[in-house]
Amino acid sequence: MSEQLALFANKPASPEGLRYAADFVSPEVERELIARIAALPLQPFQFGQYEGKRRVASFGFRYDYSLRRMQEANPIPEWLNPTITEVEAFGGPATRIRQILCTEYDTGVGIGWHRDKPQYDRVFGLSLGSACKFRFRRPAGEKWQRFTLNAEPRSIYMMSGPSRKEWEHSIPSVEAPRYSITFRTMVDQ
């Protein structure tokens, strides 16, 4: 018995400010959201002169990597309103979603280590279609402190505080097609 407890004792703690909930949406809502995202005019992710393999559509605002600043994007579609209401409830009374990023990851596609732009405040991610490993890291002396969250289909995470500002995150190549909707609040100007 003590060997089993020792295994759990060595599990790294999750980053402060990271919150996760499984089964945030029903399978029916998941199917509807995937169909809506798949019908969007998704474009390869543009990172300055580079083009990513994932395909995206931004609403409300988008970050232009060539100009290095926020730009207005198309208005948030009405079909997202019921989900936004649920995400804002998950985030608490002061939560106001102002930016949405819909992403399609084909098999073998991931996203490298990064932090979301400082103009964004709290970040919520709704995982759809298949699971992924949502990895976190931050410097710890000459090594990295690491944590991996298994983001299951229909689950949501919220990054705030240190998980948002001190930790980088990435998703390794996914094993099956996956969609996500990222909901962001904005830093007060």
Automatic annotation (TrEMBL):
At the top level of its lineage, which domain of life is listed? Bacteria
> What region holds the Fe2OG dioxygenase domain?
96-187
UniProt keyword annotations, A-Z? Dioxygenase, Oxidoreductase
* InterPro entries named among the record's database cross-references: AlkB-like, AlkB-like_sf, ALKBH4, Oxoglu/Fe-dep_dioxygenase_dom
Named from the GO MF annotations, one term is: dioxygenase activity
The answer, when asked if Oxidoreductase is one of the entry's keywords, is: yes
UniProt signal peptide: none
The name under which this protein is listed is: Alkylated DNA repair dioxygenase AlkB
The top of its lineage is: Bacteria, Pseudomonadati, Pseudomonadota, Alphaproteobacteria, Hyphomicrobiales
